């Protein structure tokens, strides 16, 4: 049963999050670390050991960690184009159509995103901005408790639209055929069956077979997140993703069956997923409670959903929609769904959310698969300062400065004066020497 909270209690419980990678930490993780690495070893220390071994020993280390952590022995990590094609050919016509529909909508959406290059002569000479695609990007696709071919679509396509030259994909050994099929659908890509921290290290440093990349995107478990954190600077990263989350604001006009279904869909991801309803309507809250219990009985991942709703989810009774908006902006959810009578007016007041799903026909599951925007969105409150994965994550912006002589002379004295204030005499000299002044 999903619990109903007052606002005060919710603020002390389900509306609070663990910070940093600790949000992934669990007894099961602690037991696994102790079993593999010995007692007293923290997950961060374990990841450091994995990363260093891959940096020093490359392919040999990958084979060792794949055997130790994934219980597989692999001599070749690369999945051939033929294997990807075979997986795609094994799909039904309906499955192929669904994946193509998703691919095409994601591509069209991202093709519409501006990547502006510009120049101006208003400041003397030419100043401007150049946009250049990243050469090579690594994309991590998690294994986990369910295959996620949609995550591959949502990461590869924005990169390709941005003009990235080479996409390197890593996913745990024995990947689900649907992931191979999507890799074929998004060709040309390279796919390697290696997971965890060792995959992140392999893409960051390069091995005999896995190319070194410039940036890594994609979510994973605690070890993947820690590896991305440790390797930031060696390689670029998109974000340190946490458990997925959905917040719904609903009023008396909402359909309780639909609200319950949306909460259940979010809780289905994993036991740490957060599915939270904010509503001022007690009757709706009670009806959603009943619907959650009824619909849960028929779902294949009922145990995961029940635990997620028990530990991380809930229904929060607010004094009104305005208070719900305040809570939503404070929480900064990955997904914010508005199932209210005036969804656009509520959306206009939202400042912090990864994605805003406006109206009950724009339900979050469509965003997970086929709406168009990437479903890789900021989690853990990071929507306060970051954005969903998009084409700008796969390009570099370079400033262009080509001043004319007159402008250079005019602003050079100001540059020298500021350098004097900073006591940087070489800076001041470099400005004055071009004006024929004494640089001493």
Structure description:
With 440 residues, this protein is α/β, with parallel strands linked by helices. The protein folds into four domains: 158 residues, Rossmann fold; 47 residues, no CATH class; 167 residues, Rossmann fold (3-Layer(aba) Sandwich), CATH 3.40.50.1980; 33 residues, no CATH class. It has 18 helices and 15 strands. The strands form three sheets. It has a six-stranded parallel beta sheet, sandwiched between helices. The radius of gyration is 25 Å and the shape is globular. 41% of the residues are buried. The model has no long low-confidence stretch (mean pLDDT 95).
Tags for this model:
18 helices; Rossmann fold; 6-stranded parallel sheet; 440 residues; 6-stranded mixed sheet; 4 domains; alpha/beta
Topology:
Layout: E1 4-6, H1 7-12, H2 27-37, H3 43-57, H4 59-70, E2 78-79, H5 81-89, H6 93-111, E3 118-120, E4 126-133, E5 136-140, H7 149-162, E6 166-171, H8 177-185, E7 190-193, H9 196-205, E8 215-217, H10 222-231, E9 236-237, E10 245-250, H11 256-267, E11 274-279, H12 282-296, H13 302-311, E12 314-317, H14 321-331, E13 335-339, H15 343-347, E14 355-358, H16 364-369, E15 395-402, H17 405-421, H18 425-432
Helix pairs in contact: 3-4, 3-9, 3-10, 5-8, 6-7, 7-8, 9-10, 11-12, 11-13, 17-18
> Which structural class matches the secondary elements?
alpha/beta
Strand order of the largest sheet: 1-12-11-10-13-14
Low-pLDDT regions: none
Number of domains: 4
Q: Briefly note the CATH topology name of the largest domain.
A: Rossmann fold
In DSSP terms (H or I, runs of 4 or more residues), the helix count works out at 18
Return the CATH architecture of the largest domain.
Answer: 3-Layer(aba) Sandwich
Corresponding CATH superfamily of the largest domain: Nitrogenase molybdenum iron protein domain
Work out the number of β strands.
15
CA distance, first residue to last residue: 79 Å
Main sheet properties = 6 strands, parallel
Helix fraction, binned, reads 40-55%
Q: Approximately how much beta-strand content do the residues carry?
A: 15-25%
Look at the structure and give the CATH class of the largest domain. Alpha Beta
- Computed CA radius of gyration, to the nearest angstrom: 25 Å
Q: Give the CA-based shape.
A: globular
User: Average pLDDT, to the nearest integer?
Assistant: 95
């Amino acid at each position: 049963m999903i619990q109903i909270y007052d606002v005060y209690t919710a603020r002390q419980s389900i509306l609070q999050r663990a910070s940093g990678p600790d949000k992934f930490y669990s007894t099961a993780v602690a037991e696994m670390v102790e079993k593999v690495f010995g007692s007293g070893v923290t997950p961060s220390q374990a990841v450091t050991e994995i990363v260093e071994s891959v940096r020093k020993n490359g392919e040999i280390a990958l084979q060792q960690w794949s055997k130790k952590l994934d219980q597989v022995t692999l001599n070749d990590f690369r999945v051939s184009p033929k294997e990807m094609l075979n997986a795609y050919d094994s799909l039904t016509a309906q499955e192929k159509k669904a994946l193509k529909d998703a691919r095409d909508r994601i591509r069209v959406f991202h093709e519409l995103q501006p990547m502006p290059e510009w120049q101006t002569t208003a400041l003397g000479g030419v100043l401007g901005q150049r946009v250049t695609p990243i050469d090579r990007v690594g994309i991590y696709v998690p294994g986990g408790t369910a295959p996620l071919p949609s995550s591959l679509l949502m990461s590869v396509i924005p990169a390709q639209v941005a003009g990235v030259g080479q996409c390197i994909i890593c996913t745990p050994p024995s990947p689900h055929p649907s992931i191979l099929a999507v890799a074929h659908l998004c060709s040309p890509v390279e796919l390697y069956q290696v997971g965890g921290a060792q995959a992140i290290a392999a893409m960051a440093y390069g091995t005999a077979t896995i190319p070194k990349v410039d940036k890594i995107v994609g979510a994973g478990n605690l070890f993947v997140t820690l590896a991305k954190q440790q390797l930031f600077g060696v390689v670029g990263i998109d974000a340190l993703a946490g458990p997925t989350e959905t917040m719904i604001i609903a009023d008396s006009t909402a359909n309780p069956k639909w609200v319950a279904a949306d909460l259940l869909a979010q809780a289905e991801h994993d036991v740490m997923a957060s599915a939270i309803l904010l509503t001022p309507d007690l009757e709706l809250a009670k009806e959603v409670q009943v619907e959650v219990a009824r619909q849960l009985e028929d779902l294949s991942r009922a145990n995961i959903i029940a635990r997620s709703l028990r530990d991380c989810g809930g229904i929060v009774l607010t004094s009104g929609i305005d208070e719900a908006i305040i809570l939503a902006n404070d929480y900064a959810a990955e997904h914010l769904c508005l199932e209210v009578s005036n969804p656009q007016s509520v959306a206009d007041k939202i400042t912090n959310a990864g994605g805003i799903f406006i109206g009950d026909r724009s339900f979050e599951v469509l965003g997970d698969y086929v709406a168009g925007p990437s479903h890789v969105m900021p989690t853990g409150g990071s929507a306060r300062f970051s954005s969903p994965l998009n084409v700008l994550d796969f390009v570099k912006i370079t400033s262009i400065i080509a001043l004319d002589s007159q402008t250079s002379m005019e602003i050079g004295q100001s540059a020298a004066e500021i350098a004097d204030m900073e006591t940087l005499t070489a800076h001041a000299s470099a400005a004055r020497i071009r004006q024929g002044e004494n640089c001493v």
